[in-house]
Amino acid sequence: MSAEATNPASPAPTTPGAHRRKSRPRIDLRRLGRAALLGPATRDRLPDAIGHVAEAHRAHHPDADLEPLRRAYLLAETSHRGQMRKSGEPYITHPLAVTLILAELGAETTTLTASLLHDTVEDTDVTLEQVGQEFGEEVRYLVDGVTKLEKVDYGAAAEPETFRKMLVATGNDVRVMSIKLADRLHNMRTLGVMRPEKQVRIAKVTRDVLIPLAERLGVQALKTELEDLVFAILHPEEYEHTRELIVENAAHGDDPLAGMAEQVRTVLREADIQAEVLIRPRHFVSVHRISRKRGRLRGADFGRLLVLVNEDADCYGVLGELHTCMTPVVSEFKDFIAVPKFNLYQSLHTAIAREDGEIAEVLIRTHQMHQVAEAGVIALGNPYAPASDDPSDGERADPTRPGWLSRLLTWQEAAPDTDTFWSTLREDLAQDREITVFRPDGAALGLPEGASCVDAAYAQYGEDAHACIGARVNGRLATLGTVLKDGDTVQLLMGQDPASEPSREWLDHAHTPAARIAIQRRLAAHPAPGEPSGGASAPVAARHDAEGAQDGATARTAASGTAVRPSAPPARPTGDAPGARAANAVVDLPGASVRLAGCCTPVPPDEVTGFAVRGGAVTVHRVECAGVARMKSAGRAEIGVRWGDTADCRVTLVVESFGRPHLLADLTEAIAVEGVAIVSATVEPPSQQRVRHTYTLQLPDAAHLPALMRAMRNVPGVYDVSRAQHAAAATR
């Protein structure tokens, strides 16, 4: 794990971020080395070498029992005694440094104990059985998880398999990854004496895999320092330019953020809101990104204001005061408290402006939110407990496992080979933004930005998503290729056939590895006739379902005496429907006959209007009918129309559905139960598993139409019922 990491001859790569972490001093490896060589301490006190660890640990956990740390250090120091790093320092300084990093972030005692021992099983004669006997099963589990990540060298060919193991270990306990990240941070801090080509290789792997994992675990303190260290190695010229910008800005002395911070303190003090207002300098990579985005930087661009309060409600109180008493930049507002980021991050983001144009970004959060923002899952302590009340039940419940991790674990098991795993892992981790969509029951579903309904289906249903036949997004019918936006509500419409096959077209819409791999596996396992590696197409499944629906409908509707023409495409009426009845419409044109327009089939209580046509008749349209707009633009005079006392009416409804056996029969039965007569019914040939039905219905009471449409929508497989909207004919 750390045999290839050594102390730098020059501290240059360790300087990024040092200007912003006054509370995290660099470890003096020589002093720790001397303390380690002094030998074990007496049983009644801690060894001097872990004094900093104990101090940092007690700062977060005042009542922590330090005895396990004392015993773990003694075992690690004894086991590693005589082993040296390439720099000449005692090897024990490495696990000490890793453990101090975790202690500063607030890791609980079990994690720190495992961290002190994380190299013993790999590099010494200590066995996992000994670790378990001395420190318990949980520490043994963590040490084993970290050790498994190091069984393969970091060669170009071995790297993918190493990280596959890392992913599996992380999925079982995120504390394994916490130790790994702290280990990589210390190795990156001490990378200076390695050969340049080896520094570059390690930095690239850190950039491509470990930094995105740190981001997803919410461990921003590790992530930002790793970014700066990688930046210094892979882009030394740009790093040096950024360092000069930071130094030059600091030399000016007049920091606009200081004045704005004092203004904020005054505003909050007068509002009687207890808050701590801090200036939070940007790290090197952040400054570099801002400079590329904005060009010339101003003083306030080198940092942000951080406001820490005690309660969630105080966050919104601070926001209200700042927006009321200062000049807000409203476009910069984001609420990550109401909708936390996928990595547990919560804060309010806003910005305020001075009269001279300086703009300060402001982060508002509670002290607890700040701890989680810095340390992510590490700050949550030990989240693992038996899933049941039975203490013998060893199954783990993991409330901190984010959705992205569950997705990665799912598709890594299905990845057919290491190369596929590696390429999809890097692609997935490169998607550094996640959206949250909601199911109709209010449950949230986390997806990467750019995900489609296909991705949502596989994220929610796994392999069962092969049977997905449609979706509604925010209540409207949408194609499975529709790209989802943050906050969308997605209802996935599932078919009834468990043997359904995905369409090959779905691969064009699949954005997540889980969806792509699942579709590819299914298509490869069930090739369609004539396709060497394809699956059955959606239209084929639709055809069979529609045929079954039609066959069932013919037999069941014949008993009611209703004529059904299930297979012929409907003859769409154009213009005025000659057979339309208008017994309940009264027009302001004496002696004129009245016809209801077939293009919009108006019924009471629709708002209607009329137009005179040849033969002395008046056609009645709904006012929102497209034909009305065309006739008015052509200069046609409207004729007043109102509904008479007669309640019965005729209406044409269009039903959109997914094909399944007996669907048409179920629909006609639902119509009959509502006491409505079917004048005619047609079914178009199915397309893409979707079937369109057109019904002309005679209602005894027009007011019953909404209830009828609801009853038809409730038939399984039906996703929409609407009034007919046919194209109007040319004016006669």
From TrEMBL:
Residues in ACT domain copies: 652-726
Domain named TGS: residues: 433-494
Family: Belongs to the RelA/SpoT family.
Protein name: HD domain-containing protein
Top-level taxon: Bacteria
Chain positions covered by the region annotation Disordered: 1-27, 526-580
Pfam families: ACT_4, HD_4, RelA_SpoT, TGS
